Amino acid sequence: MALGSATPAMAQYAQELRHDPARCNAGSAVWVNITGIKPGGGTMRIQSYRATKDDWLESGRWLNRIELPARAGSMRVCMPLPASGHYGIAVRHDVNNNGKTDLSTDGGAMSNNPSLNIWNLGKPSYKKVGFDVGRGVESISITMRYR
């Protein structure tokens, strides 16, 4: 099945990647510029999804995941994508590295910085977070939110 088909093969999901900025030199990718990161260490998890009703924030339906040590202030991460398409990015700052979402300390954010967020009002629609990527490299900015 082609990468851009409506019913993707499961092998395309749940790819854990090392951060490699060189991947943003060619092919479909997005530079994710994350700002507003609070101090405190921990891990930043950046996940890409297809911006569709069936995939956005659904368990096991993320495409690529990159985890990095969090750095206060801002970070720039290259997220490779499988092909041209409509995507959404979700970011989580696991401040204490316990692998769980702690509403009182952890931060989160999504592409297009929707006013709704998963920490207090439910997940925003895939329509609010989606952005298009062609055969080149796009750039987006995401602002972290903490309680």
Give the arrangement of secondary structure elements:
Layout: E1 15-17, E2 29-37, E3 43-50, E4 64-69, E5 73-80, E6 85-94, E7 107-110, H1 126-129, E8 131-133, E9 137-143, E10 145-146
Parallel strand pairs: 1-4, 2-9
Antiparallel strand pairs: 2-5, 3-4, 3-6, 6-7, 6-8, 7-10
What would you say this structure looks like, in words?
With 147 residues, this protein is mainly beta. Helix content is 3%, strand content 41%. It contains 1 helix and 10 strands, in the order βββββββαβββ. The strands form 2 sheets. Strands 1, 3, 4, 6, 7, 8 and 10 form a 7-stranded mixed beta sheet that branches. Strands 5-2-9 form a 3-stranded mixed beta sheet, with no helix packed on it. The longest helix has 4 residues, at 126-129. The protein is globular, with a radius of gyration of 14 Å.
Tell how many strands the DSSP assignment holds: 10
Euclidean distance between termini CA atoms: 42 Å
SSE string, helix = H, strand = E?
Answer: EEEEEEEHEEE
Radius of gyration: 14 Å
Residues in helix, %? under 10%
Measured by DSSP, the beta-strand proportion falls in: 35-45%
Query: Could you give a short account of the major beta sheet?
Result: 7 strands, mixed
The helix-and-strand class reads mainly beta
**Which parts are unreliable, with pLDDT below 50 for 5 consecutive residues or more?**
1-9
Outline: globular
Please, what is the average pLDDT?
Answer: 88
* Contiguous helical run count: 1
How do you describe this structure in short?
With 147 residues, the protein is an all-beta fold.
